[in-house]
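Reviewers of the previous submission asked for a worked example of the structure-prediction workflow described in the proposal, so we include one complete record here. The input consisted solely of the amino acid sequence. No template or homolog information was supplied to the procedure at any stage.
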Amino acid sequence: QLQLVESGGGLVQPGGSLRLSCAGSEDTFNYYAIGWFRQVSGKEREGVAYISSSDDSTWYADSVSGRFTISRDSAKITVYLEMNSLTSEDTGAYYCAASIIDYGLTSDHPLQYDYDYWGQGTQVIVSS
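From that input alone, the workflow returned the following structure tokens.
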């Protein structure tokens, strides 16, 4: 069974940057589309970024577009989320998830569907 492990979270000042990593446990990870989600206690989970398994095309939520970049390194079996110009609104637990179905091929909102595997999450706190 595929396992996902997130890392890279931490405390950062407003305006700062962080890079999150989502590492897969086996090579089959590279055949999955990957989504990054975040959740703040008491609020609904939000999908923030997506990368296709077919052509590495990407999708971003409006709230992070232009500030976050998702990318894949197949050799390292890892997907990254580069986060810049962070604000307190970006605080939350960040999760990566894998889908064998590449929703990005047929949907303008690929993060609204069910995903097959989830990581345990990494906490991001943006505060001065």
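The longest strand covers residues 92-99. We consider this example representative of the routine output the project will generate in years two and three.
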